[in-house]
Each structure stands twice: as structure tokens, then as C-alpha cells.
Amino acid sequence: MNNHIFGRSTKGEMPVAAKGDGCYLIDSDGRRYLDGSGGAAVSCLGHSNAAVRAALHAQIDHLAFAHTGFFTSEPAETLADRLIENAPEGIDRVYLVSGGSEAVEAAIKLARQYFLEIGQPGRHRVIARRQSYHGNTLGALAAGGNAWRRTQFAPLLADTTHISPCYEYRDRRDDETQEAYGLRVANELETEILRLGPETVMAFMAEPVVGATAGAVPAVPGYLKRIREICDRYGVLLILDEVMCGMGRTGHLFACQEDGVAPDMITIAKGLGAGYQPIGALLTSRGIFDAIATGTGFFQHGHTYMGHAMAASAANAVLGEILDGGLLGRVRAQGDKLDAALRAEFGQHAHIGDIRGRGLFRGVELVADRETKETFDPKRCIAARIKKEAFAAGLICYPMSGTIDGQQGDHVLLAPPFIIEDAQIDELVGKLSTAVERAIA
Ligand code: PMP
């Protein structure tokens, strides 16, 4: 049965999560699971953070909810200001929602309304990449390129096309430098804009480090800068989806800060509430905000729970822990250790083709043959087996079978809490190694 449906028959089919304790989850039978993926890159502070708990206790005594049709609130204003202060250049306004898909939907609609306001109604198309996941609501699903998720719901909303991802391990030619590869693959955006007609293209959307569909694949240096140039050349908005890779996960508050690129919009969620509250945000530039403020004066979008005071207070505590508690440096340090431990364990492994990522956002890609990079037969369900074996060994990780241009591949995404200790890194890699051996046996 689908594990997202609750009630009647669900209990007994899977363990009941009873308690969180730092980097561990504990089930109702007392079994402990090391959280090697933060769920899906959510629990960046671990599971029982004292500062977030205190913030939530304090907030519930004052205010839980006030509808944004009538009020703003202290926690929402504080959160928006702090995000703006620490965001890439040009980001000036924040739209608070309840999760990642909502943030992406808001980005698509804001882009559309922006072009209507400035008198360019013909710009309605979104270009994204084949290797991407942007959420599960209809607009976000249409933007994402993952065939497996899209196919069964086709036809999706029109006007979205997909170009190649920046996927060095599989696509860079032997005779090509990293830089030349980055430019070649970024230039596909220009070709696509010209093919569609620039006057019809509204936005390009991408994750700076691809998460769920790829297993922490960062863009090569220079790729995003070229993307930015192309967007500017044709008046196309650049939307970076940092729902998974944002909020310090890569060692920078926003992943694109490492690439030195300032987008027009950024979406965040997951690590913003860190699992303590459901919250997401769309960050946008001053220019987009002003066009709407001086036009209709009203972004024609909204959800009941946006700007929720409890959710915003949790996010304020999370941001405080990350920025004031020195966690960005810790992510980089522990990320380097995780990378080193993965390389020591799997660097020569016959079935691990690639080890990659940034900060505490890491991935390993499995291959049937290391030399040819041939993938495992999808019927072997290697990713699903790793997930099962790891869980049985007491490790939560995020294996996925990626569908890239119709090609199956298996990878494991790792995104442990930022508080992970050295010994827990060893435990994670040891348990993952056990799971990999059992899955491919
Ligand atoms: N964008 C990206 C990059 C994601 O990884 C996800 C979730 N995996 C989403 C959007 C959707 O977020 P949510 O599940 O909170 O709706």
C-alpha cells in the first residue's frame, strides 16, 4: 500500500516513528535509525533541537495563526527580513508558503503575472531540465523533467520544455575541459529560447545542485554564470529551485552563492522548517515586486496558511541556529569528512561510478560496469533494495532510480543533519556499505 495514506491498515506495515533524538529517529519498539538523509534533506538540525522547541513553546503562548488577508505578524516579518539580509544580491521580497511545491507554483505564477504587468503577455513558457524535480502539484510537476513522475499524469500543463542537465559524470567528453563542458551544456538554453521564440519564454528553472532525481549533482563552475548571461540576453527570468539544496545544505545559506550567481527568484522549503513546521518561501527581486506593486498592486495568488506564525517562528529559530551557531562552517567541515569517508569506502568499488556533491549534500552513483558506466538493469531495482537493506541495518538514506532521457540509473542521496559527529559519519558510511553489498549480491 502507498505509504502516504494513513488510517486503518497502515499500522503494522511500517514502523511507527515515536521519538527524535539528534541524528536518530526511534520507533515504537525502541529501534534507533541514523538519519542519513534528513528524511528528504529536511531535518538539517536533527530531531530534538532545543532552540526550535523553545521558540515554538514561546510562540504558541502568543499567537498561532492570523490570516494574512488582515494581518502580518512579528515572526513572519522577522523571517522575511533575515532571509533578505542573507540572500544573493538583488533579492528583496519574500512570499511565505507551506512547502516546496507551493513555493514553485508561486514562482511560476509570479513570473506569469510579472510579464502581464509589464505588457509582455506572450511570455508564458518555462524551460527546465530533463534531470529535475520541482514538486508534485500540477504546475510544479509540469516544470519537472522526471519522466517517471510525469508520464502517468500526461497531458500536463502546456508550455514547459526541457533541456539537458549539467551532469558531468555522464556527459562531459574526455577531450573537453570542465569549463568548456559547462558552456556547451548551458548554451542549450540559448538554442531552446531561439527555437521557441524569445518573446514567448518567461523563465528558466533549475536546481543549482540537483537533489532527488540525480543524487546531489552540482553544476560545473561557470555553468550557472553562462545561464544567467543567456537569461539576461533574452529577458528571461532565472528561477533557482533550492527547496532541497538551500538553507545551508551545501555550506552556503543559498547554494547559488557558491556559483556567484544572483537569480530573479529562489524557492526554498525543507530545511527552512527543518521538519519542525511545514514552511516554504519564494524569494524575489525588487524589480519583479515593483512591477506588480505599481501595476495591479496585488499578486493574484495565495494560500490560507501562508505566513503562519508558528511556522515562521520555527524557521526563525532554524535560521538563528544556522547563521549564529556557525553551522555553515560545520557543514563544510563535516561535508569534507563525509566525502573523504565515502571515497575511502567506495573510491575503488567496482559498482560505484561517481561520488559527488557539496557540503552535507552528497551522492553516490551505482553502475553495473565502472569502465563503461553502464547502469544496472532497472529490473534489479538496486535503489529500492539499498533503501530496504539500509533501513534494516538502521540507516535512513535516500536511494533513487533516476530516469534520465529514458535511461535508468541508481544513486543514493545523503543529506544528514548538520550536527552529525565524526563517529556518526563512520556509522553512516559503514551501514551504507553493508546495504550496497547486500543489494547488489
Ligand atoms: N523542489 C525540489 C528541488 C524538491 O526536491 C522538492 C521535494 N523533494 C520540491 C520542490 C517539492 O517540495 P514539497 O515536497 O515540499 O512540496
From TrEMBL:
Protein name as catalogued: Aminotransferase
Names of the cofactor(s): pyridoxal 5'-phosphate
SUPFAM superfamilies in alphabetical order: PLP-dependent transferases
NCBIfam families: PRK07483.1
Classification via PROSITE patterns: AA_TRANSFER_CLASS_3
Annotated EC: 2.6.1.-
Pfam family, one: Aminotran_3
Annotated source species: Roseobacter fucihabitans
Domain of life: Bacteria
GO MF entries: transaminase activity
rRNA processing in keyword set: no
InterPro entries: Aminotrans_3, Aminotrans_3_PPA_site, PyrdxlP-dep_Trfase, PyrdxlP-dep_Trfase_major, PyrdxlP-dep_Trfase_small
Family label: Belongs to the class-III pyridoxal-phosphate-dependent aminotransferase family.
Keywords linked to the UniProt accession: Aminotransferase, Pyridoxal phosphate, Transferase
